[in-house]
Automatic annotation (TrEMBL):
The keyword Transcription regulation applies. Residues 1-58 form the HTH lysR-type domain. The keyword Cell wall biogenesis/degradation does not apply. This is LysR family transcriptional regulator. Belongs to the LysR transcriptional regulatory family. Gene3D superfamilies: 3.40.190.290, Winged helix-like DNA-binding domain superfamily/Winged helix DNA-binding domain (1.10.10.10).
Length: 294
């Protein structure tokens, strides 16, 4: 039995006639009669009483009719849902974002995407790069924004932002009079870092070690806004991406760091061997068009 058998049966039942059903379906009467006969043989019951002047359903036919209506309705819904997905009229994208980057420009682009595809919804999850990679790999997220390097054997990716980290410190700090400092100048400072879920945590510690010291870490946080406030209250110094340093508390200053500089490179990743929805594929194309500079 296939859906066409049931659709022919429904049309005959609705019109109480093989000939009228054949005309409505643009097929010949022998064709539809044969299809109904095959359906009856497959089910092992008679569906229509053909002994009367007007074709009528048997008891078995009435039972099959109710189920055929449900199946036909379900198939039409499936077709409509698939059409909506293919035409990007609906869908959901699960996106992992690090709470470490300045999201203003990214959200502007998201807004443009939403204007074009209002039926597509977003689940935005804030986590560090390490956790985002884990969740993309385990298919808990469709795509994620992470700090490079990533794992090319597991993920496809494209870079969207590269910039240096800057030192933020209270304006009352002795180093605040400088335009730039060397990393070794911070060897006696108290550091406020992101927590262990963040790749930048590792990057800063490794850079300090290469400069000849291990940073004295007094606190860790998952929120750059909280780190800025802790610096404002003279609890320590921090190293943050340049884009985040554009908006600081009034009594906090950002200055350049060199010897060595510490940079970060943000990228969008998605699983190499995992299914990606139509909406997610189109979103990736849209983001790449608007964020990647050729």
């Amino acid at each position: 039995m296939d859906i066409k058998h049931l659709q022919y049966f429904l049309e005959v039942a609705k019109l109480n006639s093989f000939s009228r059903a054949a005309d409505a379906l643009f097929i010949t009467q022998p064709t539809i009669s044969k299809m109904i006969k095959n359906l009856e043989q497959e089910l092992g019951v008679v569906l229509f009483d053909r002994s009367r002047k007007q074709l009528t359903l048997t008891d078995a036919g009435r039972v099959i009719l109710e189920h055929a209506k449900l199946i036909d309705h379900a198939m039409k819904n499936v077709s409509m849902e698939l059409s909506n997905l293919l035409e990007l009229k609906k869908g959901q994208i699960r996106i992992g974002l690090p709470p470490i980057f300045a999201a203003h420009h990214f959200l502007e682009i998201m807004s443009k995407f939403h204007e074009q595809y209002p039926g597509i919804t977003f689940q935005l999850v804030e986590k560090g790069s390490k956790r985002i990679e884990e969740d993309v790999e385990s298919n808990l997220l469709d795509v994620g924004m992470v700090v490079l390097p990533t794992k090319p054997e597991l993920f496809n990716y494209f870079s969207i932002l590269e910039e240096d980290l800057q030192l933020i410190l209270p304006k009352s700090h002795p180093l605040s009079v400088r335009d730039a400092v060397s990393l070794i100048d911070l060897s006696q400072e108290s550091f406020i870092l992101f927590n262990n879920d963040f790749v930048l945590n590792d990057r800063i510690i490794q850079s300090c070690n290469l400069a000849g010291f291990h940073p004295n870490i007094v606190s860790e946080s998952a929120q750059h806004s909280f780190i800025k406030e802790m610096v404002a209250f003279n609890l320590g110094i921090a190293l943050l991406p340049t884009s985040i340093c554009r908006q600081l508390p009034e009594n906090v200053k950002a200055i350049k760091v060199g010897n060595p500089t510490i940079s970060w490179n943000l990228a969008i990743i998605w699983g190499k061997d995992q299914y990606l929805s139509f909406a997610a594929k189109h979103w990736l194309h849209f983001i790449k068009q608007h964020l990647v500079k050729e």
